[in-house]
Write a structure and sequence with these properties.
- 3 copies of one chain form a homotrimer.
- The first copy, chain A, has 171 residues and is α/β, with parallel strands linked by helices.
- The first copy, chain A, has 6 helices and 5 strands.
- Chain A has a 5-stranded parallel beta sheet, with helices on both faces.
- Chain A is globular and about 45 Å long.
- At the A-C interface, helix 5, helix 6 and strand 5 of A face helix 1, helix 3 and strand 5 of C.
Chain lengths: 171, 171, 171
C-alpha cells in the first residue's frame, strides 16, 4: 500500500488481498473462497493465484484438454476432476467426510463451493493460474471452468499483486 | 499500517499481527502460538482467528455443549477433545510422535501448549472463533476453554483486523 | 514499509518478503523457493525462516552432527536427510510421486530444488533456521548445507523481518 495522503480509515476499494491458493483440499479451498468473497464483499480488490494441487479445483469435469502426452493424461487421471471431487485434509473416511461437510453446509444455508465461485466471479475476484504448474501437471487452459476474470500467468504476477496488497496469505 | 508521520522505527504497540489458525495439527498450533506470544512479547497487538480444525484445540475436555443434535454429537466425538489430544501432521506413529515432542519440549524447558495459551491470555492476545465453523461442527461457546479475550465472530472481523495489521499469516 | 515520501511505484530494493517455511513437503518447499527466487529476481529483499519439518530440507546428507544423544539420533534417522529425500504432501505412491515431479521438472527445464537453493544464495536470499526447532529435533549447525547467508536464530528475528516486510507468508 502506497499512501500519498494521510488515510484516516480503510476506504472502499483501496485495500487489496492477494492469496496463493496451493492446497487442493476441500476444506482449504473453502477457507480460501470464504475469505476471498468476504473480502470482496468488504470492497477489497482480491487476487487469487491458484498453483499446484489447487488447480484441480478449477477443472471443468465435462471439458477435455487436447494433444496430451501419456504422462499428462496420467496426471489428469490421478488428480481430482473439479471442485466436486475434492477431499478433506482430515476425516476423509473414504469420501464420507466431504459428503458430510457438504450436507451440513447445505442444511446451515452456507453457500456451496460452486456457488462461492459464481459469487467470486460476480464480485470481480481475479483468478490467476500458475503457468509453471499447468505445464508440470499437463493441464490446458481449455479444461478450466468458465469464469469471468481468469488468466494463466507466472509467479511475477502474484508478487506484483502481493506487493500492492494490504493482506497476503498462502493457503 | 497507516503512517501519518515519518516513522523511524517500529514503536511499541503500533504493529499488529493477525493470523488465521486453520490447522488442528499439534505442530502447527505450536508454531502459531510461538509466533503469537513472541509477537505480543515484542509489543505487537495480536489477533488469532481460529477456524475449522483449529477450533478443536480450544475445546475444554471437561465441558459439554447443551442441546446437540446427533450429527453434532458425532463431530464432537470424532474431533480431538482439546489441545492435549492434538496429533502431529507428520510422524504420528499412533500418538507416539506427539508424546515424544511433548517430552522433548519439557526437557528443553520449552513452555507446553497449555502454558502458551495461559501466557497468550496474560499478554492480551485476542482469540476469535469462526462462527460459521462453530455452526458447521456443532460446537457451542460453552465448550471452549476459559480464556480472557475470546469471542465468536465472522470472517469480517478477521478481515478488518488483517487490514490494520503489519503482518498476516494463514497457518 | 515505512514511506517517508510519496512513492509512485515499487522501487528496486525497497520491498521485502518474509516467509516462515514450516512444511517439509517437497511440493511446499518448491513453492517457497519459486516464490523466494522470483521475488529476489524482482529486486525484493527476501528472508526465509526455516522451522520444524522444513529444516530437514537443509540437511547435508554427507555431514554429521557431533555429540548427539540417543533421542536426537532417532530424530535424525526418522526425518528426511536433505532436500533430495523430501516426499510430496499428496500422491506419494511410495516415493514415485516425487520422482515423477522431478522427472517432469527436468523435462520442462524447470530448475531442480538444489539449483534453486544455489540461485537463492547467489541472489542474496537470507536463510534463518529456527533455534528452538534445532534444539527440539537435535539438529546441529554443522549438519546443514553450505549456503552463503545462513544463521540460526529465534522467532524474534522473523518478527522483526516480517514487520519490515511488504509481503509475509507462512508455508
Amino acid at each position: 500500500m502506497h499512501h500519498m495522503q494521510p488515510t484516516p480509515a480503510p476506504t472502499a476499494g483501496t485495500d487489496q488481498l492477494s492469496m496463493v491458493v496451493f492446497s487442493g483440499d476441500l476444506d482449504k479451498i473453502l477457507a480460501a473462497m470464504i475469505i476471498a468473497t468476504g473480502a470482496a464483499a468488504f470492497d477489497m480488490k482480491v487476487n487469487l493465484f491458484f498453483t499446484f494441487w489447487a488447480i484441480s479445483a478449477l477443472r471443468a469435469p465435462e471439458k477435455k484438454g487436447k494433444g496430451k502426452k501419456l504422462i499428462e493424461k496420467m496426471f489428469g487421471f490421478m488428480l481430482p476432476r473439479g471442485m466436486d471431487k475434492l477431499a478433506l485434509s482430515k476425516m476423509q473416511m473414504g469420501g464420507m467426510g466431504a459428503a458430510m461437510i457438504k450436507a451440513i453446509m447445505k442444511k446451515q444455508h452456507v453457500a456451496s463451493l460452486p456457488e462461492m465461485f459464481k459469487t467470486a466471479g460476480e464480485l470481480g475476484i481475479q483468478i490467476n493460474i500458475c503457468e509453471m504448474s499447468m505445464k508440470l501437471m499437463g493441464f490446458k487452459r481449455e479444461e478450466m471452468i468458465d469464469y469471468p476474470n481468469m488468466q494463466v500467468c507466472g509467479v511475477a504476477t502474484f508478487l506484483a499483486d502481493a506487493t500492492d496488497s494490504t493482506v497476503q496469505l498462502f493457503i
